[in-house]
């Protein structure tokens, strides 16, 4: 068993959205195999951590990324805990991780959730190449590199010049090993239809995300401006689109269709994932794996997605439940929806072999100690 310090430089506890859940659950499952202490910002709730200690050492200031004092604080913690590994969530603290590796002789692990340089390039930021070079610098000096999907791992090996033996795919996971029972799904469908007073003839489509993140807001705009108008022209397809998530814009400012319901942030997201007929994922920017798609499929919900939105999710793992449109082809996206909403298939066990946290983190835990 290794002693590990995890460095998380942003708020993630309590975990509400996909990226936050990715860190919280990765740490939770890793702590079943190794002793883990998480160093993070003050804007985190230690009581929300499961299985590991949280130390609110980092400030909430944007300048925390440039504070040299953290070197001495974390060096003292590494020595006190006799830590053998230091995990960086994202490469932004690469300078600090490299210094601690060199002076404390810990093994440095970079846990990449996206290729950050490319993500910011897709969002139109002029400085993306500077971050790309820094990201490459950090990964090249790590002892272990974790990537969110195979495409990112292969890109980094090829373009950062990494040793494949030091790289592992550790995808965003789900906290279940099988789809929900049919009885739970049927109960959720009845409850959701009763909540909104919809009859059984209406197909319920779902999109959820954090809408302060531009790719999700752009996807919402596509639903409102393109997908809903095209769907509305299909004869015999009666539907509603539920939009769930944080930071939704004001309904009065954007919704012009009575087929769109802005539910906002919901505490009972599993009710929606089980109670809807189809998940739609018109995301085309941002990079990384789309955690909302992974969760939806894990709840046995069929999904229609753009190719970019399904990066890291192989349709062969999904038993026919993932339908892919053409790139930037909204006519083909909409054409898939009626058949996908009506299809009744079950997500296969192979899907959970790839995405259940218990399996993915067990592989990562063994990788860290060379087993």
- Largest sheet: number of strands, sense, barrel closure: 7 strands, parallel
How many runs of DSSP E, i.e. beta strands? 13
From the spread of the alpha carbons, the general shape counts as elongated
Strand content: 15-25%
- The run of helices and strands is EHEEHEHEHHEHEHEHEHEHEHEEHHH
Instruction: Give the class from helix and strand content and strand pairing.
Output: alpha/beta
Total count of domains: 2
Q: What would CATH call the architecture of the largest domain?
A: 3-Layer(aba) Sandwich
| CATH superfamily grouping of the largest domain | Glycogen Phosphorylase B
- In whole angstroms, how far apart are the ends? 12 Å
Explain what the structure shows.
- There is one protein chain.
- With 371 residues, the chain is of the alpha/beta class.
- The chain has two domains: 3-173 and 356-368, Glycogen Phosphorylase B (Rossmann fold, 3-Layer(aba) Sandwich), CATH 3.40.50.2000; 182-351, Glycogen Phosphorylase B (Rossmann fold).
- It has helices at residues 18-30, 69-81, 94-104, 116-122, 128-140, 150-159, 182-196, 214-232, 251-254, 269-275, 291-298, 330-342, 349-355, 357-368, and strands spanning 3-7, 35-41, 53-58, 85-89, 107-111, 144-147, 167-169, 203-208, 239-244, 260-264, 278-281, 303-305, 322-324.
- Strands 3-2-1-4-5-6-7 form a seven-stranded parallel β-sheet, sandwiched between helices. A six-stranded parallel β-sheet has the order 10-9-8-11-12-13, sandwiched between helices.
- The model has no long low-confidence stretch (mean pLDDT 94).
């Amino acid at each position: 068993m290794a002693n590990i310090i995890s460095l998380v430089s942003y708020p993630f506890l309590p975990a509400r959205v996909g990226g936050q859940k990715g860190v919280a659950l990765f740490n939770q499952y890793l702590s079943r195999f190794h002793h883990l202490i998480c160093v993070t910002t003050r804007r985190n709730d230690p009581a929300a951590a499961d299985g590991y200690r949280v130390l609110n050492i980092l400030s909430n200031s944007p300048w925390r990324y440039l504070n040299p004092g953290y070197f001495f604080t974390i060096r003292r913690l590494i020595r006190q805990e006799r830590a053998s590994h230091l995990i960086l969530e994202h490469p932004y603290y690469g300078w600090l991780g490299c210094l601690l590796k060199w002076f404390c002789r810990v093994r440095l692990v970079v846990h990449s959730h996206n290729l950050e340089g490319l993500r910011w390039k897709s969002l139109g930021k002029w400085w993306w190449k500077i971050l790309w070079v820094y990201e490459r610098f950090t990964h090249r000096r790590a002892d272990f590199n974790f990537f969110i999907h195979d495409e990112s791992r292969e890109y980094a090996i090829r373009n950062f010049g990494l040793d494949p033996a030091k790289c592992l795919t550790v995808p965003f996971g789900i906290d279940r090993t099988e789809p929900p029972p049919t009885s739970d799904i049927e109960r959720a469908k009845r409850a959701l239809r009763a909540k909104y007073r919809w009859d059984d003839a209406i197909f319920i489509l779902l999109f959820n995300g954090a809408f302060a993140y531009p790719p999700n807001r752009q996807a919402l705009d596509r639903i409102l401006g393109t997908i809903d108008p095209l769907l509305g022209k299909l004869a015999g397809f009666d539907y509603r689109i539920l939009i769930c998530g944080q930071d939704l814009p004001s309904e009065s400012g954007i919704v012009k269709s009575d087929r769109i319901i802005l539910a906002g942030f919901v505490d009972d997201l599993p009710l929606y994932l089980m109670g809807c007929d189809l998940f739609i994922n018109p995301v085309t920017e941002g990079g990384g794996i789309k955690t909302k798609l992974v969760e939806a499929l894990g709840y046995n919900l069929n999904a229609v997605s753009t190719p970019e939105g399904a990066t890291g999710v192989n349709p062969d793992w999904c038993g026919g439940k993932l339908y892919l449109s053409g790139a930037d082809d909204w006519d083909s996206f909409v054409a898939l929806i009626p058949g996908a909403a009506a299809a009744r298939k079950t997500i296969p066990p192979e899907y959970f072999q790839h995405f259940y946290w218990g399996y993915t983190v067990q592989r990562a835990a063994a990788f860290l100690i060379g087993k």
